[in-house]
Every structure is written in structure tokens, then in C-alpha cells.
Amino acid sequence: MPSSSLSINKYHIAVAQNASGRNLNVPVYHLTSNTSGPKVYIQSSIHGAEVQGNVVIYHLLQALKQQPLKGEVILVPNCNPVGTNIKAGEYTLGRFDPVNGTNWNRGYHYDEQAVVSFAQTVEEREDVSDIKSRFRQVCKEAITKKLEQSWGLGLAQGLNLTLQQLAFDADIVLDLHNGPVSTRHIYIPEYAKHAAKQFSIPHCIFIPKVFAGALDEACFCPWWTLQIELEKRFGRAFDFGVEAFTVEMGSQEVIEFDEGKKDAQSILAYLACKGMLDDKQHQPQSMQRFGVMLKDYKTLFTDFGGMVEYCAQPGEHISKGEILAKVLNIDELENERAIDEIKAPCDLIPILHFPSASVLSGTQLYKCFTQYFEIS
Amino acid sequence: MPSSSLSINKYHIAVAQNASGRNLNVPVYHLTSNTSGPKVYIQSSIHGAEVQGNVVIYHLLQALKQQPLKGEVILVPNCNPVGTNIKAGEYTLGRFDPVNGTNWNRGYHYDEQAVVSFAQTVEEREDVSDIKSRFRQVCKEAITKKLEQSWGLGLAQGLNLTLQQLAFDADIVLDLHNGPVSTRHIYIPEYAKHAAKQFSIPHCIFIPKVFAGALDEACFCPWWTLQIELEKRFGRAFDFGVEAFTVEMGSQEVIEFDEGKKDAQSILAYLACKGMLDDKQHQPQSMQRFGVMLKDYKTLFTDFGGMVEYCAQPGEHISKGEILAKVLNIDELENERAIDEIKAPCDLIPILHFPSASVLSGTQLYKCFTQYFEIS
Amino acid sequence: MPSSSLSINKYHIAVAQNASGRNLNVPVYHLTSNTSGPKVYIQSSIHGAEVQGNVVIYHLLQALKQQPLKGEVILVPNCNPVGTNIKAGEYTLGRFDPVNGTNWNRGYHYDEQAVVSFAQTVEEREDVSDIKSRFRQVCKEAITKKLEQSWGLGLAQGLNLTLQQLAFDADIVLDLHNGPVSTRHIYIPEYAKHAAKQFSIPHCIFIPKVFAGALDEACFCPWWTLQIELEKRFGRAFDFGVEAFTVEMGSQEVIEFDEGKKDAQSILAYLACKGMLDDKQHQPQSMQRFGVMLKDYKTLFTDFGGMVEYCAQPGEHISKGEILAKVLNIDELENERAIDEIKAPCDLIPILHFPSASVLSGTQLYKCFTQYFEIS
Amino acid sequence: MPSSSLSINKYHIAVAQNASGRNLNVPVYHLTSNTSGPKVYIQSSIHGAEVQGNVVIYHLLQALKQQPLKGEVILVPNCNPVGTNIKAGEYTLGRFDPVNGTNWNRGYHYDEQAVVSFAQTVEEREDVSDIKSRFRQVCKEAITKKLEQSWGLGLAQGLNLTLQQLAFDADIVLDLHNGPVSTRHIYIPEYAKHAAKQFSIPHCIFIPKVFAGALDEACFCPWWTLQIELEKRFGRAFDFGVEAFTVEMGSQEVIEFDEGKKDAQSILAYLACKGMLDDKQHQPQSMQRFGVMLKDYKTLFTDFGGMVEYCAQPGEHISKGEILAKVLNIDELENERAIDEIKAPCDLIPILHFPSASVLSGTQLYKCFTQYFEIS
Questions:
Q1: Residue burial D209-231, b: 16+ Cβ < 10 Å; e: rest
Q2: Mean pLDDT over residues C346-373, rounded?
Q3: Is A16 close to B360, i.e. CB distance below 8 A?
Q4: B150 touches chain A (CB under 8 A)
């Protein structure tokens, strides 16, 4: 075992108070090496039922303790103690605030206009690291101001901004999620396409610079916009070295230690590519990878309600016209209308499907790669 | 009783299917007189717990049967049979789709760019009624196209668009809502400010031309935008006579027949102002009315969790520094920290408050008029 | 202010762990005087939405600090931190475990056969206080054994037994509840009928020695049974001086400090009757009181679903045939079937009604005193 | 294909009304042959998330249409339209009434005292078929009376009694359920132990004559009690040929057509054993079967909350001390307390486990056969 000089500082931050008036605390594991390098922020379970990321963080901690690290890693498992603890029947109602329906992953901060204004303050000869540090300062102050506004903030937004304060310091941000019943996939900003081959994840969604409130977007949009603005102003390329991803590590409501170890290895390989770890020990798996542009990542809704068998498995390649699902019609069991078949409208890869057999009309049955391509 | 030539046509439309595969039907009462006049569309209970509008529609029907009407009225009570029937404990979980948190009042259609394009097709001398009828056609076709898209639609959006198909024919649209614990108030588009005095409602919120997905916005934004575009093009004023409002008729989870009768009278007075009824019989009440611009209609969130007494009642005028709420701290009952007081940050009128004494931090305690003014 | 020698010892007990692995703690306020007297146990909010008892405990604490007390008082507010913190929409899903539907007030321990066996161990000349202390010991050991069983216990039952360990030491047990929309009422074991006039509560339900799992029953059934068994054996009366009540202090989801003060005064008057406080300062209110035997405390279910106005108010005296509720039928608004009336099947006092206007068939609309009598 | 004289009569019964005032209908498929034989009643999905039984009924219908049948079969799929349609997040909240927590399978009728009284009316020489028909009449009248009581009935109980009216006519009653994550198993009344080998189900739980409100108990307890009473009175054996079972066909929230076909074959084999079908075509599978007495079918609750991996799979044979589950402790990820192991307290077969990785303390992790035996 290498003589590691890693230090682990564990502390808790309060992200909310419950109706008993008690603080809801989130654990933070801050790993610092004595060798400089990038700063990484990884959180899991912002959606309360998506728990597998906690196992991934556990395995990351075990692995990082045992080898030389360059830089810093902040690990925030179980970052949403409200969402984790709302049960509705046996399952966890973890995707949105049960009071008002607010998605827990839509309240992060991004102010495009403020970035444009900041770009005006950059001087021709200003050093990239100085720009980075000034920009971080400005963005974090904006978040602080929002957190302190006198009329208060909604629960989800307050939680999001408190976490974003930690995340915004990092060069690399990973938000660990799970799908309902899902194969592994990752959201990658288009400017960081190269990263697709640095993880061991077979399905990659490339996303444009559009902010819809999620953590990854809130972390990369400011830097991406700043880069574009400065390139416009000064006519040369800028690279701030900031990347942020939403990583979907299988299905929700499931803990699997062995699978989590593989997911941790995928992340370690990426960190090795970034120079933080010995890259001989950590290589991305050799595997077939498929990519899709966000606009071609499509949701198939059912037009009618009923009881559904999901015939196509996440990750399978399905041809146009093949059966995706069968719906049982309980009022027609004795005749030929007993079963409706839902067929693939085009060639596609189903990435995830709804986790319950009982669906109302308008339910998101499948999310699918269409017009996908192999990443080589 | 006048010799009324009113005809009432009742039918049902299917807006969704449940998990048993059964259609969920919504009743439509279509009242037609043999005298021409405006077309009115009134729906209630798009938020399932906001049931009082159904009583208002009942009283409207009783009243309209008994007097001469000019024009048409479409009444759609209980327009969201999914939201009405989701119970969580004794209350109705009616504000959002329980599967994914989607607010039932955010999926209506509006395409600003399409309106701008349409404006280009209008000819200088085209008659207003021709423009109206062409524009309706175009907008309704866009909704139909959206409803028929091959990958399907989410439940809330499908429901919304199906209702919007009915509403978009009307010149006057009223969407009947309730607040949690609430005084009566109405949302009025700024261009229709005069309507504030045509209802018998003491609190009016004036809203700009911004689309956030609600029915009223989806009904007035297209006409408002068209009017602006045509004024820009032709340098003269256009008035299409279309108005749409969200009317908040007291508190959710409550049915009160007597109160509903008064609310119906308020609407009848407005219809009389529009020339549809004998305006001698139907006058808006003489009352003090207060208005606020939407940007000054503010939400007060609590910074901490606990058990709350709502000291300020909806409709009361509260001065800066007065106590709005007291929060009991169950861990400090024996000492001076037992009760926290939440004070008004400025002069305000609380319009509604949260309906439960138990709150997490980040709960929307009150919505308040600030910088309000008397409407005279 | 009297020179009080009261000491207040505040501590917390862990009653469960949440899905984050954190202890859920309940505050215990233990008040001890240096003058001997009965031991009192008062808890509130075992049903999470029934929060007003917490205010009552607050006022009890304020009052008890200011006057001489004989004996001990244990106050346990907010005794169910799970139930308090499950939100479903804006309301608190506090009546049952959201995972499995278990009512939070049905898992206390009572073993009739064990009491009968214990009675056999009592000797003719054994002192009542010795019997009490031996019996307490035996009962508490049974609870401890149940709590420690190797296969574990359900959440509600574990919570109940942990609280019962504290309560079973007391001579007087008050379990503070609220109804949905409710007038104040109290459950009194038939053997303690005299207590009806010692509280300031207008509606009293007298209950037989039947155990259905609630705290009051779990506290009085053992002593009541023991008393009967010993009377059978020794042919003379026994009185252990133990009383237990469920007190329903108005409506759920509401905090009202002023009302809570009155409820505290009602309890103080009862404690004064028991000799714990100066009875000149604390007199039960002079008021009309009505009683009912449990078998005549009846639930009125609706046969059909719809939107309901609750016409009869809790506490009103209603004659047979009077209207209790009106139900709006949204599919028949234009005709004479628009409103159904639900009438009182006999003379009755509605004590509480359902808190939502939207009901399915089979909903408990009202709970009513029938065959009631004045307590004089 | 045989010239079958089977007739299928499909109709619907209303079992409740929703908050929109609409009837909730359940489909009934009544199959009658022209050859006499037993009467069978099969229902599915009384617990709304347990949907696989609907597929089994579909396959039963397909099979029964194609071969000669002796007797009658009543099939009632999706028998609880309320439970089927309550969504809480993506899953179905189908186990209990969301309003009050009442388990949908606990409100059936059984009145032991009435059976004892009926037994007194039987005459020494009365024919068994006469006793059966008189007894059915008496029991059904009691159910009818309960359904018609003037103060109404709770929703779950009304639903249960309406179904029981249909079921009580049958000689054979199958209530099709699913476990959370579960292997196939069946509840068999001890007097019908022989049936264990007539189904193709590897795990059998033998239950005593105790009524806890479920359909199977409500169907067999009356006959079992009657038989015992008559044997006591007349000193000879009585056999009414009535059997009732709860059959657990795998996991909830899942539809699998192929698995459902196998489950249908298991039921057909049982019906063939009863003489209703050609028994050469339908043989129970040759398989290892394990039995357990109800008292040894034990629930393992977790003492602490956390994130759980279920290491033991339903149906596996586990030795005392082997690991059943691992619990991740998110506050101790960096040290040796990161994972707690839960071990088997004795040799056991886990039959089902909780379907979510996130558990509070007191959660039912596993239900297990202990002291089980092979059925030969």
C-alpha cells in the first residue's frame, strides 16, 4: 500500500429543518492530498429513491484511501435527507417535494446575463486562473445573496443552493442518479464530448448549453457561456477545465454493493484521465458506446391506461415495429381485444422504463435513444 | 319568469384513462341562447382539491336558466377527474400529478413565434372578425397537432390541451380556483384592468404578458401578442375582445353553497357588463378593491421548521413589524425560545396562507400583496 | 410568585431511526416537586397531524412553573417524529405508518391473561401500594421483553412500547389528540365516570374494558382487570387510583395558542381535583356536559361519492331528519338531482366531521353522539 | 378443439363511487358449462399493486375456452378499482385505503357465533347438500344485512362484502395476490393440507382456523367451524367440500405474460384434481415442496434505518448466521462501521423481502419459513 498523505475531513451541513424543528444534516467527506490537482465534487441521492450512488461513494472512499491522489475530492452522499425519508407505501417518494411537486433537481442557480456582464470585466491579458477565481467569487456571491433574501426561499431551492455553494468550487462535478428501471447512461455537455470514452458507461447523451435547473447544467453553463463570450471578445480559445455530468447508475430503489464497485471504477478511470490518479491502474473499460443528441433522446408516452408488460429491456437494440410493451385490458379478457401491443415507432435503444405495471394514459413508458450513433 | 329560449346541451368528454383502462370523463354543459353575443368558457377544479368552483357553476346554471342570455356559455365543472380522486390521507392530493409532480395547470399551449408569424399574414384591410376566426383556426390546429403527436403526451399536458380546445373558441375564459386558506382574489391581465371593477372581488392581481403554462395565460397571451404585433405593423389599435381570468374563490377542500351563490353573482355581474345579461339585475358590488402588480405579489417562506399559528388572517391589512405567525419549538418549551415570531417585512395584505400547522423550512407560509393600491 | 421547588429535567429518547440512519428523538420534560403526590404522564401528537396538544403542553409547562405542585409530571410533546414529518401535499399524513397503513395508536401492549395470572400471586393481606409496585414491575418487564425480541418489531409498535415504558409508571395518563374537524371531547373509562366533571370538556364518551391497542386502554385495562380479579378473589373493593384518558382538543392541522391555554386550564383543574395543585385556583368550568356510551357513539358513512358541504357543525344538537350534509352531483348540475341531502337518522350531536369536501363512498362523514344524556 | 358447451357471461358490478360521483365497476366473467360440477370463484388485485393475478385470469380464460369444463367458474380480475388507481410517485399505493390506512383485505365477514347457532338448527338426518344450501342462505343474508345497515359502511368493508356475496356461493375460492419481492407461495387451511400437492407452488403455509378478516379465512372459517360443530353434535365426520386459498404469484408491480401462463396451469391442475377438467392434460408439476405452520412463518424487522442490499433471494435456503442483508450507514462511510450485516437468526427460507432499499427502523425486511419441512 502506498504511503498516502490523504486526509479525510468529515463534517455535516444543515440543509433544511423538519416539522419537528430539527436540522436535517448532510454528511460531507472532504479528501485532501498534499499534491495539487483538480477539485472534484460528487453528490448522490438528490432524488431520494436513487440510492445506488451512496454505494458508489462508499467504494470511491475505500479506493481513494489506498492510492496517491492529486487534488481534492468532496463526497456528499444522501444529499437530500427530506427526499430520502418520504415514504408512500413501501417505496420512497423521492423525486419531488411532496408538498408542492417541485423536482428536487430543478432549483440550482444560473444567471446568463450576469455571465455576459462578467465577461466584459475580463482584461485582454488576464490570466486564466485569475479569471477563474474572480468568476467563482462572483457566482458564489450571487448564490449567497439568493440564499439570504429576506422573504426566504422554497425548500428545494434552498437545498439546491446550499449544495451548489460546495459544488461551484470544483472543476469536476458528478451528480449521481438512477433511472426508474434503467441501464447505465450519462449526460455529457457537448463541449466535453471526449469524456464519453473516459467513463465505462455504454450510453451517452450529449446536451447543448440550455439551463433547466439541474446541478450539472448549473455547473457547466456559466463556464461554457463565459468561454463563448471571451472567445467572441478576444478571438481566441479559452478553456477553464470545468466539466459536470449527471451519471445514471442503474435503477432506483436498489442497493447493490458489487455493481457499485464497478461504477466507482468507472469514475476512478475518469479521474485518472484527469491526472488525479495513476492511470495505469485505472483504465476505462473497452466497450461499445452509443451516443445520442439530447433532442433525439425521446420519451414514449402511452395513449391509454392499463396493466403493462415491458417487453423491451433497457439497453436492447430494438427495430422499428418491434413490440415494446403489451397492455392488458381487463374489461376484454375473453376476446381478441384483451392485449394491446405498443410498437417501436423507429429504431431505438430503450434506456429506461416506468417501474410499475399499472399506468394511466400519458405515462412515460420508455425513454429511448433514437438517431443514435456509435462512439468510436 | 322570462320566456327564455336557452338550450342546455350536456355531454361528456374523455380526458384520460385510468390504470383500469377506463375513460375518465368530464361533463360539459353547453348553454346556447337564440340571441347572439359573446362565447364564455368556465371551468373548475383543474386542481383537484379546489372544489368550490363546482358550486359556483351549479349556481350559474340555476341563474342562467331563469333569464334571457345573449351568446353562449360552456361550463366544465370538475375538469380534472384524476386530480379529484387522488386521496392522501383525508385530503385530496389535487395540485399535481402524483406520479411526477407536474402541476395540473402548467401544460397549456402557447407559441409566441407562431403568433408573430401569423401577424405577418394579416392584410391591412382584413376585418377583425375575419382575423379572429382565422387566428382561432390556426391556434386550434396547433393544439390538435400537439395532441396527436406520435410519441404521445404527458397526462397533465394531454388533459390541458383537451380542455384548451374547448376554451380557445371563447371570448371570455374563467378558470375557477381556490387558495389553500384564502380570501377571494382574481388574476387580471394588465390590458383588461377595467375588469377589476366588473367582478365583486376585493383583491386583484395585474399580470403582464408572460406565459408560464396556465389556462388564463394560454388564452390571453396569443390575442395580446397578436394585438401588439398588428399595432406595430399597422400603427393603429386592435381589440379582439378576448379576456381570460383565474378567479380564486376562497379556500380549497371546502364546499359552501351560500358562498358559491355570491361568487356566481359576481360572475353574472361581469357577464352583464359584457352585454350578455340584463345589467340592471346584475351589478358588481360596491366595495373597496385593492390591486397589486404581479411582481409585488410576494411569497413569504419560513426559514425554519416547526408548528405554526397563522396570526394574520387572509384579507387583513398588516403593518410592517406586526406578527404574522408564531412557531412553536417543541424542544424548547420550558424556556424563552419556546415561541418564534415571524413579522411582516413591510406593510402587506396576506391573501392566503399554508393550510397546515406543521411546516418544514422553505414552506410557503403566506402570499401577500405588497406595494398595493386602492382601485377606484 | 410562590417559591416553587419544582425541578425540570429535559432529555430526549430515541424512538426510531429514519432511512438516513439517524435517530428520531422525542423530547421529555420531567417535572418533579419536593412534595409527594401522583405521577402524571401526558403525551401529544402520536397522530402526526394532531398538533394542538403540543401547545397545551407548552401552556401546562408555563403554568406548572409558577405554582406549588405535589407529585411528578412527565410531558412528552410531539411523541411521534415519523408521523409529524410525512407530508402528502400540504397536509400531514400523520394517522398511520405510510408504509403499511398501521394506525400509530394501536400497538400498545396489554396481556389480559398475564393480569389474571398476576392476580393469583397477590396475597390476602398485601398492601395496595405493594401490589401496585409489583404489578408495575411485571407489566414493564413484559414490555421490555417485547421490545427486545430477536426478530424485531414493527415501527409503530416499537414506538408505542417505548412510550408505554414511560407512561406505565404513571397514575394518570393523558393522551392528547385532535379530531379532523372536531369539537372538544374526551374518552373516559366507565370506572372513572366521576372524572367527566373534573375536566372542562362538554362531550364525554364512556368506554368499557375493551382493548383495541390505544394508549389509554393499554394504561387502564391492566389495572381495571386486576381490580376486578382481586375483587372476585377477596370479595372486597380495590382502588389503584390509576386513570387514563384520550382527550380530543379540537381540530387537527391547527395551532391556536389561546385555545391551548384553555385546554391546559381544563387539565390543571383535573390535576387539582387529584390533589396535585391548589384547587381554589383551578376549578373545572361550570358547563353543560353530555355523555354517551361507546356503543352509541356512531359513525355515519356516506353511501355515495361526491362533493360535500358539512351543514351540521360539531357540537350542535341535531334532530332526526335534519340535514347533516349536502352532496353536489357534478353530472346532474342542470336538473333536480344536482344536490343530495343526507339527513340525521336519529337525534344526535355531531362531534366531528371529515375534513375534506371530496369524498368517496364509504367515507366517515360524521361521528355522532346518539342516545346521549346530560351529565349532572 | 373439443365441442365445448361453455358459455361466458360478462357483466360489471359497482363496488364503490369515487369523489366525482361515478360508479367504480368491476368486471365479472361467469363461465358456465352444461355439465355439473363445483363452483369456483377467483379474484385478483384486491391489493391494487398486485396485478399479476389479472394475467393469470386472462390465461385461465383462454385455457377454459378450449376444453370441456364441469361446473362453473367466476373470474373477477382487478376487483379493487380504488386501490388500482391510487398512485404515489410512480408506484401504486394499493395495499390500504389511502384515507385511513385500512388494509383492503381485512373487512370480510365472519360471525363465529352465528355458525354455532346455525349448527343447532341442523337435524340428524339432514342431507349435506341441504345443510350447505341452507347455510349459504343464512350467511349471505347476514352479509346483505351488513351491507344495508342504515349508518353505512367503510369503503374497504363495503367493497369486501360486495365481493364476498359472489364468493360465498362457491365451493372453491382463490384470492390471487403478490408479495413485494417474492417467490410463489400459497396459504392453505390445515384441514385442506392435501391441496399442497395439487398446485405447482413450492412454498405452502398451513393456517389454523383463525379469522383476521381476509377473504380466504372468511370463506373457509364458516364451513370449518360448522363441520367441527356438527361433528361434536353428531359424532361423525362432515365434509362440505369447500376450500379457499390465498395464492401469492410472485412480485407486485409486475406483469409477465409467460409467468402468468404457468400460474394458470398450476390452477388448472388443481381444478383437474377437483374433477372439473380432464386430469390427464393437467397434472401438478413434480417439484420439491416445503411447508410451514403459520406460527413459524416469521417476519424479520430491522432494528435500525438505512440503505439495504437484500443478499438472500426469495426461495433460497439460508443457514443460521448467513448474511441476509447489508445496511449502508451513510454517516460512517470512511470507517469500519460503514456496513452493518443482518444475519439469519436460524435456518430459514426467505419468501419475500421489502421492495425498497431505503428503510426506517421497524421495517419488515423479510418474511421467512422457519421450522419448515418437506411435503412428500
A1: eebebbbbbbbbbbbbbbbbbbe
A2: 98
A3: yes
A4: yes
Mean pLDDT of all residues in D17-38: 96
Q: Does residue D334 carry a pLDDT above 80?
A: yes
In this predicted structure, what is the pLDDT of residue C279?
Answer: 85
The tens digit of pLDDT for each residue in D129-176 reads 999 999 999 999 999 999 999 999 999 999 999 999 999 999 999 999
Using a CB-CB cut-off of 8 Å, the residues of chain C touching A98 are 87-89
Q: What is the dihedral of CA B192, B197, B198, B204, to 10 degrees?
A: 60
Interchain contact, A360 vs B82, CB within 8 Å = yes
**Cβ atoms of A37 and B346 closer than 8 Å:** no
A142: left (phi over 0), alpha (psi -120 to 50) or beta: alpha
The ipTM value here is: 0.95
| Residue contact D333–A61, C-beta within 8 A | yes
Tens of pLDDT, residue by residue over A212-241, are 999 999 999 999 999 999 999 999 999 999
Question: For residue range B110-143, what is the model confidence (pLDDT) as tens digits?
Answer: 999 999 999 999 999 999 999 999 999 999 999 9
Nearest to B82 by CA among B26, B8, B165, B39: B26
Strand partners, B12: B27
Helix/strand/coil for A225:
helix
Residues in C touching B48 (Cβ below 8 Å): 358
CA B135 – CA B121 distance, rounded (Å)? 10
Backbone angles phi, psi at A168, to 5 degrees: -70, -20
How far is A257 from chain D, CA to nearest CA, in Å?
A: 7
Strand ranges across the sheet with D323-328: D339-343, D323-328, D306-310, D358-359
The answer to whether residues D114 and D134 touch, using CB atoms and an 8 Å cutoff, is no
Q: At D165, which helix (H) or strand (E)?
A: helix D155-167
Q: Are D71 and A69 in contact (CB under 8 A)?
A: no
Please return the burial class of B338, using the count of CB atoms within 10 Å of its CB with bins 0-12, 13-18 and 19+: middle
Q: D176-185: b or e for each residue (b if 16 or more CB lie within 10 Å)?
A: bbbbbbbbbb
Sole residue written with cell 380534472: B80
A299/D315 Cα distance (integer angstroms): 37
Q: How many residues does chain A have?
A: 376
Helix H or strand E encompassing C207: strand C203-207
Task: Tell me the pLDDT band of A5, cut-offs 50, 70 and 90.
Answer: confident
pLDDT in tens, C51-74: 999 999 999 999 999 999 999 999
Q: Which of C1, C20, C116, C132 is nearest to C65 (CA)?
A: C1
A306 DSSP 8-state letter? E
Q: What are phi and psi of A67, to 5 degrees?
A: -155, 160
- The answer to whether B349 touches B317, Cβ cutoff 8 Å, is yes
D99 touches chain A (CB under 8 A): no
Cβ atoms A21, B304 nearer than 8 A: yes
- Residues 6 or more apart in contact with residue C280 via CB below 8 angstroms: none
Report the alpha-carbon distance of residue B274 to residue B285 in Å, rounded. Answer: 16
How many Å apart are CA A50 and CA A246, to the nearest integer? 13
Determine the residue of chain A that is closest to C93 in CA distance. Answer: A88
Query: Mean pLDDT, to the nearest integer, of B37-45?
Result: 97
